[in-house]
Design a protein that fits this description.
By secondary structure, the protein is an alpha+beta fold. About 20% of the residues lie in helices and about 35% in strands. The protein is built from 19 helices and 65 strands. The strands form 17 sheets. Strands 48, 49, 50, 51, 52, 54 and 55 form a seven-stranded antiparallel β-sheet that branches. The protein is globular and about 90 Å long. Mean pLDDT is about 85; it is low at about 1-10, about 10-40 and about 635-640.
């Protein structure tokens, strides 16, 4: 690379002239700002401010979406325009510098473009001149210099030292120094190692709860052999991270970690540095591949996009808000006094919730009062409210949670509305009480106390929330009790167990509120926490049922303490916004989410009537959330809470008068189904329904969310999909919420159609609806997840879906916590001649990744199998250990049907399995859950056979699998087991059915044919057998062969002539019926991002043939939306009387990004042939030969855009 002429232009900012120049620059900046204040500001209208704000937003969106939409070019044009028009704004200068770094990284041609390099140096100089007080400016300058020079010199050292002085408590500059001095040639800089060690120490002191910093710093201290200092840091490590470290991985890894932790403790006692150093190293090797380690690494080594400035200065934003306020005056909200639901003559009502108690689609009202829990209903719209349920309480509670907590499946009054009844959790001074909603013997709805497990030990509960923390499809409990926060995992049967020891919670703090939201938008559900006496924060979900408290940064300091806090979408900017209540101050904090972190964007405070609680809903349907402030019960003062803050386009809502009554507690919903949100409130001794009678021409849409249900399900948990992230796109407006109720209501203003509704279910799976008319209640049921890459083949006219692959090689898939399903990386799949025809002298196969997973292809081979036309060939396409799935070709010229075939109920099913006709048989009536059925069997009678010699059973079918999260859920229950893989039972001499083939194997995914050797299966001359399993398997055809005549066949390897990896998108999915597998139409494709990004590096696009010729651990790693076109030479047709089928040999792995897959959110660690397990740890590592290092440098360079999924709420189907 040619060295630029102006290498020293940035150098001067790090030398002794810097201090003088800094003063000059600051003075010039202040003078320029003063000129703008007195001259430019008065010349800018609110309309112009709004235009510049919009241009800045557009530029930022283009930059964040640079991969898909020519974002670099479009963003750069806008930043250049903003720099000219607004020379004193920081945003265009910093973001332009970030853009240049990202362009240089992504385009190899720019590394020799002298003009681009020279110009970028000038852009970095501009940034340092415009923003000399921000540490980010110096880090960006150093990163640019390091990219160009690939070395570190004194200029970089001084730039980073200046960044450290400006960091204001951030460890980022010190980590930048530590890592860059390790990665680059340091030119033998004097004292660099001492400075490096000091930087690491400083970084650790600033963020002691960072797992990566703590481990690296402990390793450094162990090398220095200072026992006093090491012991102090070790104590902090155990206090801050001990529980998380022990629980950070599972079973074997956890046992090893516990062993290393104990040996380090012993080493400290004995002063044994050999033991300390060795075990610190072993501990680091085990933890380093873990996702938490990587997450914490990204916290202190942020991506350049993390340094983006999100908005223009306050003055311009203020002018733009003036424009918004003038243009959008909120519509008034009017509540009618409504009917009295209940009036108590003795005990005071304490809490109220609306709920569809009896599954009729209407809303009832649940009321908690001292000593009783009541439910009220109206027989019809004109009737009074009547009590339909009464439960006597022995302890004091003052809060109600509502959700489906058990695995029931009651018959609904109206099947359109619900498939499971809502249960209740009461909380307060008396602790927690779980109430099961059920039908009594007379068919009446009642509630009964559930056992609840470990919950019975709690007292003084001040806050509680139901949330699927471990993403296993049931709802867990997070509670604030007696000054502590506790996590209780659900067993799925209204019972919970304490799992707090593996999380990190603040101690001796009274939680006042807990709110569910994916705050950092990394797919898993976090929790916002408000406290009585400290600044709020959030419980970051680390995966695998572990939470870690993260206090909000200093920009949120005025939120401490707050009586109540909620996260909602307030400004349509695709990031959660905070609303907090402090006495008579309602504080709005709009935020920006990027790359897994949260930053404050803007502030808007308003004065309201003093209160301690609030709720948020769009009462006037204008598309902006309104906030009703009220007081809690049991207060001694005479406060009357009736402030209503009406939302609008600005950060400051318009405050109006609320309902004319004291409100002690309230809930909201559309009780009369007129499209407007009503209130049900407690006011003194009364519970009242306040009907919303606002006059408005605004439109609305309501969504009734429902989890997976089916008419052959026995039941499910969390049927209302509480915790789902629901987004709407209406023109240029964006709406979002996290579901806490079965029914979600969205006001839409004047819009007449909803372009898109996207659901991100608690499992992490997205699903969308398009073009929805307003003014209606719609019902959406969750689709089931699939898995594994797809194969499409050319059939002579078009590419058509053939099957899926890599089913035998799942990575990180747990059958139960800490128990992993083994990998078999190879498979041989038959492609029938009808599916594979030549095109332009080639056979072409499209391998696609259309789900949220990573596929790793190491070897791909294609064979032509020529054989007599009257003979069928089969491979063994089963999932199972190698000894039952040995590769080979089975020839079948004389297939035989069983004499009889019956299911476990005695039904004759022979007609259903006699032929390959896509009419499937299942051996169960109702499944328990997706992938799990009751234990069932298919009984076959093979007839009178002379012996079992050379006897082979063939079965064609498909499996609907469980997933990792469901497996975890099953394992947590005492009354449920994970699916039993198929086995074969035969009669013994006593006529008893005994197991003789275990495992039998099963077809992986879409329809495949498996072969089962029965030559040693039978114990007598009774040739009946039972195929027994609790998997959800559907059989199409079953036959057997015996002593099959040997026939000639030819296997011809077909040379690969090319392989290209590129982005394609997603084929249209369709399902014919519940008995058939999903299929895909290759001709109908959606190109926009469908799934959230996985972290890590995928294979770069382009030629990849060189990676597929041998099994050498140099994989083609594909991500969501990728396609690999693999081409093989075609050969002459077989002779007359012969037919040609094909066998594709694949070696590879697949990693589902299920939230319970271990390392499922990242590409790494890369698998390799000789690994003993996955994820591997300890002494095992990916091969480190020069070949593999070159592979990583050349091919593994592509990353998925984290923002693309969130910024393009456009497509999934």
């Amino acid at each position: 690379m040619t060295e630029p002429q102006n290498k020293n232009l940035i150098h001067r900012y790090g030398g002794t002239n810097w201090r003088f120049l800094a003063v000059v620059v600051v003075v010039l900046v202040l003078l320029g700002w003063g000129w703008w204040w007195f001259n430019g500001r008065t010349g800018m209208s609110p309309e112009q401010a709004e235009q510049w704000t919009q241009l800045a937003d557009e530029a930022n969106v283009c930059l964040e979406n640079e991969i898909f939409r020519k974002g670099f070019e479009e963003a750069e044009n806008r930043y250049v325009e903003l720099k000219k028009a607004l020379p004193n704004e920081i945003l265009p200068f910093r973001n332009h510098a970030i853009l240049r770094i990202l362009r240089f990284k992504s385009d190899d041609d720019l590394k020799n473009d002298e003009a681009f390099i020279e110009e970028t140096f000038k852009i970095m100089e501009e940034l340092l001149e415009k923003d000399p007080d921000a540490y980010q400016s110096y880090i960006l300058a150093v990163r640019w210099r390091n990219l160009v020079y690939q070395q570190l010199d004194e200029t970089d050292v001084e730039l980073l030292a200046t960044a450290g002085k400006l960091a204001d408590g951030s460890p980022v500059p010190f980590v930048e120094f530590y890592e860059s001095t390790a990665a680059l040639n340091n030119q033998d800089l004097p004292g660099i190692e001492e400075k490096r060690a000091k930087s690491l120490e400083r970084a650790y002191q600033l963020q002691k709860d960072n797992l990566k910093l703590a481990l690296v710093y402990l390793a450094q201290l162990a090398g220095q052999e200072n026992l006093e200092q090491f012991s102090g840091v070790w104590k902090e490590f155990e206090e801050n991270l001990g529980g998380i470290v022990v629980g950070v991985d599972l079973e074997e890894g956890t046992q090893k970690r516990q062993k290393y932790l104990e040996e380090i403790r012993e080493g400290i006692k004995e002063g044994d540095w050999g033991s300390i150093q060795g075990n610190v190293r072993f501990l680091g090797n085990l933890i380093r591949p873990n996702e938490l380690y990587k997450i914490d690494g990204s916290r202190v080594q942020p991506h350049e996009l993390e340094f983006m400035v999100s908005t223009l200065g306050k003055e311009i934003i203020g002018l733009a808000n003036q424009r918004s306020k003038t243009a959008d005056a909120p519509s008034p909200v009017v509540f009618e006094s409504g009917a009295v639901v209940f009036e108590s003559s003795s005990a005071k009502p304490l809490a109220v919730r609306s709920v569809d108690f009896d599954l009729d689609g209407g809303l009832e009202v649940a009321v908690l009062l001292e000593g009783s829990f009541l439910v009220f209903d109206r027989p019809d719209a004109d009737s009074d409210w009547v009590k339909v349920c009464h439960y006597k309480l022995d302890h004091h509670y003052d809060g109600i949670l509502v959700a489906d907590l058990d695995f029931d499946y009651p018959p609904p009054v109206n099947p359109k509305f619900s498939y499971a009844d809502p249960d209740f959790v009461l909380f307060g001074k008396g602790g927690l009480l779980v109430l099961e909603n059920k039908l009594n013997q007379d068919g009446q709805r009642i509630v009964e106390k559930a056992s609840a497990g470990d919950l019975n030990q709690l007292q003084d509960v001040t806050a509680a929330v139901l949330s699927d923390v471990d993403h296993d499809m049931d709802l867990d409990l997070v509670v604030g009790a007696a000054g502590e926060i506790k996590l209780f995992l659900s067993r799925g049967n209204l019972s919970f167990f304490d799992f707090s020891q593996f999380s990190q919670f603040p101690s001796d703090q009274v939680a006042t509120s807990l709110e569910m939201v994916d705050f950092d938008r990394d797919i898993d559900i976090d929790l916002i926490v408000g406290f009585k006496d400290r600044k709020p924060g959030y419980l970051e979900n680390l995966g695998h049922a572990k939470l870690r408290f993260r206090e909000f940064d200093s920009s949120f300091s005025d939120l401490a303490p707050c009586k109540a806090i909620k996260a909602n979408e307030m400004d349509g900017q695709m990031s959660w916004d905070l609303t907090a209540l402090q006495g008579s101050e309602l504080i709005n904090r709009t935020t920006l989410t990027n790359q897994g972190s949260v930053r404050q964007k803007s502030v808007g405070n308003v004065t309201v009537s003093a209160g301690q609680r609030f709720c948020q809903a769009d009462f006037n349907n204008d598309g902006f959330l309104d906030t009703l402030i009220y007081r809690p019960p049991n207060r001694d003062d005479d406060f009357s809470g009736r402030s209503l803050a009406l939302g609008n386009r600005s950060t400051r809502p318009v405050v109006s008068k609320g309902p004319e009554m004291v409100i002690d507690d309230c809930d909201f919903d559309d009780l009369d189904a007129d499209g407007k949100i009503d209130l049900v409130v407690i006011s003194g001794e009364q519970v009242r329904w306040l009907r919303n009678v606002s006059v408005t021409d605004h439109n609305w849409v309501a969504v009734n969310v429902c989890g997976i249900s089916s008419n052959f399900d026995k039941g499910r948990i969390n049927n209302f999909a509480v915790g789902s992230f629901v987004e709407l796109k209406v023109g240029d407006r964006y709406f979002a919420t996290v579901s806490e109720k079965p029914r979600l209501h969205f006001g839409l203003g004047k819009a007449e159609e909803v372009d898109l509704i996207r659901f991100l279910w608690p499992s992490g799976m997205p699903q969308s609806l398009f073009k929805i008319q307003t003014g209606q209640l719609i019902y959406e049921e969750m689709f089931e997840k699939g898995s594994c890459p797809y194969i499409y083949t050319w059939n002579g006219q078009q590419y058509t879906f053939f099957s899926d692959c890599l089913w035998a090689a799942p990575l990180g898939l747990q059958s139960a916590p800490g128990k992993f399903i083994p990998c078999r990386e190879w498979e041989y799949l038959k492609i029938p001649s009808d599916f594979m025809k030549p095109i332009d002298g080639e056979y072409r196969i499209q391998l696609t990744e259309e789900l949220r997973e990573a596929a790793y292809f190491d070897l791909i081979e294609l064979y032509a199998i020529d054989h007599p036309a009257g003979v069928e060939i089969f491979t063994n396409e089963k999932v199972g250990p190698p000894f039952i799935a040995e590769p080979g070709i089975h020839t079948v010229g004389n297939p035989q049907l069983p004499v009889s075939a019956t299911d476990m109920y005695g039904k004759d099913v022979l007609p259903e399995i006699a032929r390959d006709d896509k009419k499937y048989f299942r051996g169960f009536q109702n499944r328990i859950a997706k992938g799990l059925a009751p234990l069932h069997y298919l009984e076959l009678d093979l007839g009178d056979l002379e012996s079992a010699d050379e006897l082979t059973l063939f079965l064609k079918g498909w499996i609907r699998p469980t997933d990792c999260s469901l497996n975890i859920s099953f394992a947590q229950r005492d009354d449920m087991n994970s699916p039993q893989t198929p086995v074969i039972l035969v009669p013994n001499e006593k006529g008893e059915w005994v197991k003789t083939v275990d495992p039998m194997g099963f077809p992986g995914g879409k329809p495949k044919t498996i072969a089962v050797d029965l030559s040693k299966a039978f114990l007598t001359d009774d040739y009946r057998l039972r195929i027994q399993t609790s998997h959800e398997i559907y059989w199409d055809q079953v036959f057997f062969t015996q002593a099959e005549e040997r026939v000639e066949w030819k296997q011809i390897p077909l040379p690969m002539v090319g392989a290209d990896l590129h982005y394609r998108g997603f084929s249209k999915r369709f399902v014919t019926d519940e008995m058939s597998p999903e299929w895909y139409d290759y001709q109908q494709v959606t190109t926009t991002a469908r799934w959230p990004a996985m972290s890590g590096r995928f294979t770069r696009y382009g030629e990849v043939e060189s990676l597929l010729g041998e099994q050498d651990d140099c994989h083609v790693v594909m991500g969501s939306g990728d396609e690999m076109t693999v081409r093989f030479s075609a050969i002459d047709e077989p002779p007359p009387g012969w037919r040609r089928d094909f066998v594709i040999h694949l070696v590879g792995y697949d990693k589902d990004a299920d939230l319970n897959t271990v390392t499922g959110q990242t590409v790494g660690p890369l698998p390799f042939k000789n690994m003993s397990r996955y994820p591997y740890g300890g002494s095992e590592h990916f091969p480190d030969s020069e070949k593999h290092r070159e592979y990583l440098r050349e091919f593994q360079t592509r990353q998925q855009s984290r923002s693309q999924f969130w910024k393009n709420v456009e497509a999934t189907d």
